[in-house]
Specification:
Structural class: alpha/beta
CATH architecture of the largest domain: 3-Layer(aba) Sandwich
Radius of gyration: 29 Å
Number of strands: 17
CATH topology of the largest domain: Rossmann fold
Distance between the termini: 60 Å
CATH class of the largest domain: Alpha Beta
Helix content: 40-55%
Largest sheet: 9 strands, mixed
Length: 622
């Protein structure tokens, strides 16, 4: 199995090495490079959709009907003319001037930069929302540099693993460039697992979706995937609106949406500064609002905000300069105000906002008393690519069912995550589903929880069909109980590790690396199965066949009276408490005595060592 993390890094390092060897600055370089990644991703999706279209394709006169732009439009996919397809560009001859190539306007093209610019223009011709958006500055690159970039992003490993991973590479490059352009005013890229959590809990189906701080469009893309996965067409079911103050980010958003076959209306620049403008006139009109707004922004002009409206609970605290020292509750008020009478909102917010005081507290109290606050989730450190701060996910629902109308579900997920590397955590797909399952039970949607339990069982049945190991097959089929399955898998993996060591030691010297790689791949696959078993057990151990219960340290349903008694705090940790400490069977008093004896022994050894060093220095005359 290809190491995607390694591939991401290699592609980035190669591209960045070329940048450092060119005369271009990072700002001049990033958009063209993202444009090439866009082309590669768009081509991957084009080939995937083309293969779908060609299934059962009618023929005429013995010839299969060729695909057309309208076929792609019917599948909400981006059509690519031949001259804009990646394999065409990467296989062009070295001498462009001698190839007699003509642009879409009939002009001769004499450099690779002109050909790539023409490809971008051809794509813009296919998509009204991309008009004037795609980079067309490729003549700034030498043909040699541009050809090398095209080659780098045509890595054969991408062809082996398919479009989903190419999409991940595209997102990875967005993330890397976001690091370069992110400033210290609270603007940073939203990681995919936070976006997925918001979309999964809001469950968009149809209507108007607004992201008033849309960045590169992750909320739209994930919502589109969610709607399409339910058998609907996202472009028909949803209307996407975005506001993004930074025009560069708005361009990325439009590119990101287009490559996923989505259309929307995105406004940028000063008119899209959400603090002062409702650019689409959507106040009170939205079915869904999703956002990761900049946190803790200051120097926002209070009079301009007040005249712009969307503040149903009044103004946050204003300083002597008639500015807000912290705009978090402006955003929170806006998100509520944008919703229609059945609307849902989900957004990322600084952790401090859950129990901030002064006028923030008054706004929060009024907000809670509307009954719309639905779910609050605490998120731990290291979920963001450029910041290590913790955050909270807030969810509003103006049409909660009566059983939970005066209740809020609190989830403390700060200790529930998967470590990606030293500086980055995320929720795995199963962890996203597990947290979502708690929300389902709170809402009384037991059938969705039970479907997830069956999905776990289906996963183990699928693993069983994959394996050629009879012992493993028996374990996967035998144990219906997730706890017993986890224990058996642990024991099986321990035994296989010992066997792997023996096999590698016994292998001929020339075969040792091959044998080691074979066992490493197999053991990694077993660990994958074990991880799924652990997640299944984590969920089933707490909620069984599907009955919600408060779990200390994890989740708690609190009513308005309890929230009032906590000073209108929305901090999950204030409600869920701490998990019970497991008894490890160690006698505390006896263990402390042992530690004390060990400490005295180490101190004595240290004194002896210092004495020896001192005597040696004296002998040396020092």
């Amino acid at each position: 199995m290809i190491n995607i993390r390694k591939l991401e890094n290699e592609l980035w390092e190669s591209a960045d090495l070329l940048r450092s060897g060119s005369k271009l600055t990072s700002n001049q370089y990033c958009m063209p490079v993202l444009g090439l990644i866009f082309l590669r991703y768009a081509y991957s999706r084009f080939k995937m959709v083309e293969a779908e279209i060609m299934k059962n394709r009618p023929s005429r006169g013995g010839r299969v009907m060729p695909v057309e732009a309208s076929d792609f439009a019917a599948k909400s996919a981006l059509y690519l003319p031949k001259e804009a397809q990646y394999d065409y560009l990467v296989n062009l001859p070295e001498n462009i001037a001698a190839a007699d190539l003509k642009s879409r306007d009939g002009h001769p093209m004499n450099s690779l930069g002109e050909v790539v610019n023409n490809a971008m223009q051809l794509i813009e011709d296919q998509s009204e929302q991309l008009a004037g958006v795609l980079p067309k500055s490729y003549t700034d690159f030498s043909d040699e540099l541009l050809a090398e970039l095209l080659r780098i992003f045509n890595n054969s490993a991408l062809d082996d693993v398919g479009g989903d991973v190419i999409g991940r590479i595209y997102e990875y490059f967005l993330n890397k460039f976001a690091k370069n352009i992110a400033s210290d005013d609270g603007v940073f890229f939203t990681p995919k697992s936070l976006v997925k959590m918001i979309v999964n809990i809001l469950e968009p189906k149809s209507g108007i979706l607004l992201d008033p701080a849309c960045g590169s469009g992750g909320m739209f893309v994930q919502s589109g995937d969610f709607v399409n996965s339910k058998g609907m067409n996202a472009n028909s079911a949803m209307t996407f609106y975005g506001q993004e103050k930074v025009e560069y980010n708005a361009q990325l958003c439009l590119m990101n949406m287009a490559v996923h076959g989505l259309s929307g209306v995105i406004k940028s620049g000063d008119e899209a500064n959400t603090f002062y403008h409702d650019a689409h006139n959507l106040n009170g009109c939205c079915d869904y609002v999703m956002a990761n707004p900049p946190f803790n922004v200051d120097k926002v002009k209070s009079e301009s905000c007040e005249s712009a409206g969307r503040l149903p609970f009044g103004l946050p605290s204003v300083n002597k300069k008639k500015e807000f020292g912290n705009a978090n509750y402006l955003w929170i008020s806006y998100f509520y105000s944008y919703l229609n009478e059945r609307g849902r909102a989900g957004f990322v917010m600084a952790s401090s906002a859950t129990d901030s005081q002064s006028k923030d507290k008054n706004i929060r109290e009024n907000l809670i008393q509307t009954g719309c606050v639905d779910v609050m989730i605490s998120v731990g450190n290291n979920f963001f690519y450029t910041k290590s701060l913790p955050c909270s996910l807030w969810f509003f629902d103006k049409a909660k069912n009566e059983a939970i109308r005066d209740k809020v579900l609190f989830i403390d997920a700060r200790n529930y995550y998967t470590v990606v590397d030293r500086t980055l955590n995320e929720w795995s797909e199963w962890q996203l589903k597990n947290i979502n399952a708690i929300v389902w039970l709170y809402r009384g949607e037991v059938e969705k929880y039970q479907a997830l339990i069956e999905e776990y069982r289906d996963a183990f049945r699928a693993y069983s069909l994959e394996c050629a190991d009879k012992e493993l097959d028996e374990i996967l089929i035998k144990y219906a109980d997730f706890a017993a399955l986890t224990d058996s898998l642990n024991a099986h993996i321990d035994a296989k590790r010992k066997r792997a060591k023996e096999c590698v030691e016994q292998a001929e010297k020339r075969d040792k690396k091959k044998e080691q790689n074979k066992w490493d791949d197999y053991l990694a696959w077993l660990e994958e199965i074990l991880t799924v078993a652990k997640e299944a057990n984590w969920l089933y151990d707490k909620f069984g066949v599907g009955e919600y219960q408060d779990v200390a340290g994890l989740c708690k349903i609190a009513d308005l009276e309890e929230i009032k008694s906590k000073g209108w705090s929305l901090t999950p940790g204030a409600y869920v408490g701490v998990p019970p400490t497991e008894d490890d069977g160690v006698d505390f008093t006896e263990r402390m005595k042992e530690i004390h004896r060990e400490l005295l022994q180490l101190q004595a050894e240290s004194n002896d060592l210092m004495k020896t060093i001192s005597e040696n220095l004296k002998e040396m005359g020092l």
